[in-house]
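cache lookup: miss for this entity combination. No prior model stored, computing from scratch. Input as submitted by user K.M.:
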Amino acid sequence: AQSVTQPDIHITVSEGASLELRCNYSYGATPYLFWYVQSPGQGLQLLLKYFSGDTLVQGIKGFEAEFKRSQSSFNLRKPSVHWCDAAEYFCAGGGNRDDKIIFGKGTRLHILP
Amino acid sequence: GAVVSQHPSRVICKSGTSVKIECRSLDFQATTMFWYRQFPKQSLMLMATSNEGSKATYEQGVEKDKFLINHASLTLSTLTVTSAHPEDSSFYICSAQKGGPSTDTQYFGPGTRLTVL
């Protein structure tokens, strides 16, 4: 079955430290992959997306993600986090012939001052 | 950009009443709109997919008679929660898409917090 898994429910990093949020997918073909961020009580904002081509995707707010087919992963990275990055992060994916996308359960990012 | 709005942002209603939530794509035409429900500290669960001018496709376990979806134009979809009960209290989020996943992505509204007393 198609699925998107975010293994970490909570992640805590210090301000200024690097960040990596994990995402694994299970799809038969190359999926369409997304990372969204949700601040408390808000909707979702698209950080970046991967459809095809270059496996390293640059997004907004200094985020990037790398598609690794061999590991079925699409991890989100940022070299130096800021306090305002504290939020819930969702990885999502969709199949080739299906317009629906499936969301992971989310990872809540906490930033230590 | 692609902006999606939702109205109202918050609504409180009495048990047994109906509530309508609007989702609008402000600067593009959306061939497809999606309605999600998000429980506290949980992920988004797709409720239904609506295409302009046709009936919505509901996910398994979602009561179509309770959650009425209308997609009357390329910029507006509405979700009506009929005979609302406290267990319907949730955060409802819509998204709008210009094309399929191969050409575009979903743009999300800010969500509507529904509280049923």
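stored under new cache key. The mean pLDDT of chain B is 90.
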